[in-house]
Amino acid sequence: xxxxxxxxxxxxxxxxxxxxxxxxxxxxxxxxxxxxxxxxxxxxxxxxxxxxxxxxxxxxxxxxxxxxxxxxxxxxxxxxxxxxxxxxxxxxxxxxxxxxxxxxxxxxxxxxxxxxxxxxxxxxxxxxxxxxxxxxxxxxxxxxxxxxxxxxxxxxxxxxxxxxxxxxxxxxxxxxx
Length: 177
Known about the structure:
Layout: H1 2-40, H2 45-176
Helix pairs in contact: 1-2
Coiled coil: 3-174
Protein name: Kazrin N-terminal domain-containing protein
Domain Kazrin N-terminal: 3-177
């Protein structure tokens, strides 16, 4: 936006310089004509001399205006060069920033890929462990059931053995009688 304003100002200054140069050219032509008239009429020159003096003053004023316009134009050119250099620096910084962003984006993608892979591996490991746990739980319950059945059978056998021992003692008692 600045460059558009500055270019607009530069264009206006160029137009003004062209106009001033045309005025200076016209004034110089008028001065030359008046100088010729003055040379031809060497008499009664006070009125002509005054108008020539006025023309010279105007000419000096216009030349000063032209010099100021040239200085302004030079300053604008220097600003334009400075702005171009700043623009070049900004473009370079933007390119570096884009390169950094692309690098970081690639790093982030790689991290996400690795994270997904590790997560999947972890999930698979958890599934395997869950299956192993289920198998061990089933085995534990089977062992408990078997233990319970074995205990019940042992109790039955013990009671049968106790009954047989009692019977043997009865038979021994009868025998001893």
